[in-house]
């Protein structure tokens, strides 16, 4: 189980300040949800956490080591990223895409070994897409691609997984299966999500972003209050809690004033 921490992250492009003073702690196989309206900085933060973007200020650490000083391959051996747009795999088969997850473990000219094949088989089975492993990528539906991308991440056998809206193309059963799978993996996860009820149900902790800043962080019950939802999303909501259950949110409509 890995520990991924970010302290005082600032990130800008030109004059645009995309992230300001953001702190994140993800550790011990917990699932951390990143919430916030469109454009609040979730995807940008995930890329900074993955070491794909270098922050202007602050630092990301993997088990205490600054990620900026680690070789890409060393990062890829333990941290997997599931991005939103996955059109780039073109003519590869599903299996070939999932095999890409083994790249960090192979020498440049080595083929796949038995251990690699076993990791790929297990990953395909875990997301229930083994029957489509010979299909060409561009023939897959959006939801099938999303599951195959997760299989690629699992084939990496990571200690941390960062996921950008992994459920947005999935039917309700596959949404629930994916989030339950993430919880049972024992892998530290950071997930950007739009569905507040799914976030409340499956995440151990939530981080609510607005305008590139953390508005609040804590347990789902601490973060998801009617006042916060009104303030950040401009939506009226009522929230049912009790019996130790996760908050259940009913959206009443956009704020009128
Ligand atoms: N190259 C860029 N130049 C200027 N602003 C940018 C650039 N790239 C992204 N942004 C802005 O940064 C902000 C954060 O974008 P980001 O994609 O991280 O948000 P998000 O919370 O993931 O949004 P969504 O929920 O819509 O996916 C947005 O306002 C976006 O317009």
TrEMBL record:
Molecular function via GO: ATP binding; ATP hydrolysis activity
InterPro entries named among the record's database cross-references: AAA+_ATPase, ABC_transporter-like_ATP-bd, ABC_transporter-like_CS, P-loop_NTPase
Keywords for the protein's UniProt record, in alphabetical order: ATP-binding, Nucleotide-binding, Transport
Source species, domain of life: Bacteria
All copies of domain ABC transporter, residue ranges: 4-236
CDD domains, alphabetized: ABC_Iron-Siderophores_B12_Hemin
Protein name, UniProt field: ABC transporter ATP-binding protein
Provenance organism: Leucobacter edaphi
């Amino acid at each position: 189980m890995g520990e991924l921490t970010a302290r005082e992250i600032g990130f800008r492009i030109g004059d645009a300040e995309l992230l300001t003073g953001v702190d994140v702690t993800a550790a011990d196989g917990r699932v951390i949800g990143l919430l916030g309206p469109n454009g609040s900085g979730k995807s940008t933060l995930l890329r900074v956490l993955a070491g794909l973007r270098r922050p202007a200020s602050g630092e990301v650490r993997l088990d205490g080591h600054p990620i900026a000083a680690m070789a890409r391959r060393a990062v890829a051996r333990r941290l997997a990223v599931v991005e939103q747009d996955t059109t780039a795999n073109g003519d590869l088969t599903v299996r070939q895409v999932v095999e890409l997850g083994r790249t960090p473990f192979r020498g440049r000219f080595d083929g796949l070994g038995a251990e690699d094949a076993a990791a790929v088989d297990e990953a395909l089975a875990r997301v229930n897409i083994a029957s489509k492993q010979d299909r060409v990528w561009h023939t897959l539906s959006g939801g099938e691609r999303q599951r195959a991308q997760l299989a690629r991440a699992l084939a990496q056998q990571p200690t941390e997984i960062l996921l950008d809206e992994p459920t947005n193309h999935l039917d309700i059963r596959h949404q629930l299966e994916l989030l339950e799978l993430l919880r049972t993996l024992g892998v530290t996860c950071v997930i950007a999500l739009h569905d507040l009820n799914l976030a409340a149900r499956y995440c151990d902790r939530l981080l609510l972003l607005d305008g590139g800043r953390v508005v609040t962080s804590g347990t789902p019950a601490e973060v998801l209050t009617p006042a916060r939802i009104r303030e950040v999303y401009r939506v009226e909501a009522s929230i049912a809690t009790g019996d130790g259950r996760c908050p259940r949110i009913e959206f009443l409509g956009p704020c009128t004033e």
